[in-house]
């Protein structure tokens, strides 16, 4: 459910249509994205042994898996692009979706004689939007609900706050969320305990430098372990526990200015979709908590809830979360 919701939002923004009207059904797109993040997060020998590692990756089947994923993604994006190119609708700049904007930029570069912005560049940007925008938001929603169900006292407190401020409304608006102080703490604690991309996006050094006395050469790939940082006992008290109150009167935020909490990265390479992701997550989760009470199925207790993380580029919940919504009205 959370995947289909976030996918519909991104597809509406990028393609100007909902998930139901897309060129791939919801389950097919979810499977493709999941396979992509798993492959991207898989160990690649070539990263550590550049001259011979490619042979190991070929023998292990990694190359063929990458080829299959890329072929499916390329076919999907090619269909989307052709659909926009063949559309009879005349769009002005105020009603363009992201695909329209990228195709317009491509046409302008072709007319000017520039060759650096090709159709492959268009597809690469669309892949970034897909991988960075759809799966990540859905995963955060799942972890937030899982932690709230596993901690009933926190669930009761956050629902009480939301329903207090929206007692005469049937839904939560973006303006209402500004009043939800504890709710925002719950979001922060979810991002701390379950950063969607545990190792962030890999970086490369642009010059020789030193860190803690160790020389680091130019062109070295750098991984930032945001998962470990967010669970460091020297920074956080009881780091493995879900305690939203730790952010009460605490200036640490997730927007890249505090190195203790980096779910979106920081600096010039911070996630460009952070604001949209947070607006979506906050509005969706607030409405889910406002409208429904969420129960575990078949008499299951919070202690029995499996919180194991799946492996790959993203840290999704390995065992799917199944909850029963009870209408609050």
From TrEMBL:
Superkingdom, taxonomy of origin: Eukaryota
GO terms assigned for molecular function: heme binding; iron ion binding; monooxygenase activity; oxidoreductase activity, acting on paired donors, with incorporation or reduction of molecular oxygen
Top-level taxonomy: Eukaryota, Viridiplantae, Streptophyta, Embryophyta, Tracheophyta
Cofactors, names only: heme
Organism of this sequence: Kalanchoe fedtschenkoi
Coiled-coil ranges from the UniProt annotation: none
GO CC aspect terms: membrane
Protein name (database record): Cytochrome P450
Binding-site list for heme: 271
Keywords: Heme, Iron, Membrane, Metal-binding, Monooxygenase, Oxidoreductase, Transmembrane, Transmembrane helix
Subcellular location: Membrane
């Amino acid at each position: 459910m959370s995947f289909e919701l976030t996918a519909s939002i991104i597809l509406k923004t990028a393609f100007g249509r909902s998930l139901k009207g897309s060129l791939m059904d919801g389950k097919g797109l979810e499977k493709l994205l999941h396979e992509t993040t798993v492959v991207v997060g898989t160990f690649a020998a070539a990263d550590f042994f550049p001259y011979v590692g490619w042979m190991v990756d070929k023998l292990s089947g990694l190359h063929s898996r990458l080829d299959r994923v890329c072929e499916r993604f390329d076919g999907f994006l090619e269909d989307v692009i052709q659909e926009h190119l063949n559309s009879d609708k005349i769009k002005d700049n105020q009603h363009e979706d992201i695909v329209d904007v990228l195709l317009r930029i491509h046409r302008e570069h072709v007319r000017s004689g520039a060759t650096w912005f090709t159709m492959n560049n268009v597809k690469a940007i669309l892949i970034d939007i897909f991988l960075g925008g759809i799966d990540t938001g859905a995963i955060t929603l799942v972890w937030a609900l899982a932690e709230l169900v596993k901690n009933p006292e926190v669930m009761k407190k956050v629902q009480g706050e939301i329903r207090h401020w929206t007692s005469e409304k049937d839904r939560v608006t973006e303006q209402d969320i500004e009043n939800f102080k504890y709710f925002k703490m719950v979001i922060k604690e979810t991002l701390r305990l379950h950063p969607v991309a545990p190792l962030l996006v890999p970086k490369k050094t642009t010059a020789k430098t030193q860190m803690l006395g160790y020389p680091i050469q130019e062109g070295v790939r750098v991984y930032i372990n945001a998962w470990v940082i967010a669970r460091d006992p020297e920074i956080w008290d009881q780091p493995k526990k879900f305690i939203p109150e730790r952010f009460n009167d605490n200036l640490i935020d997730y927007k890249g200015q505090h190195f203790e909490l980096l779910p979106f990265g920081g600096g010039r390479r911070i996630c460009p979709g952070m604001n949209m992701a947070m607006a979506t997550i906050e509005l969706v989760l607030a409405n889910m908590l406002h409208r429904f009470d969420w129960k575990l199925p078949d008499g299951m207790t919070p202690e029995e809830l499996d919180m194991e993380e799946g492996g790959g580029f993203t840290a999704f919940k390995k065992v799917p979360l199944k909850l029963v919504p009870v209408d609050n009205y």
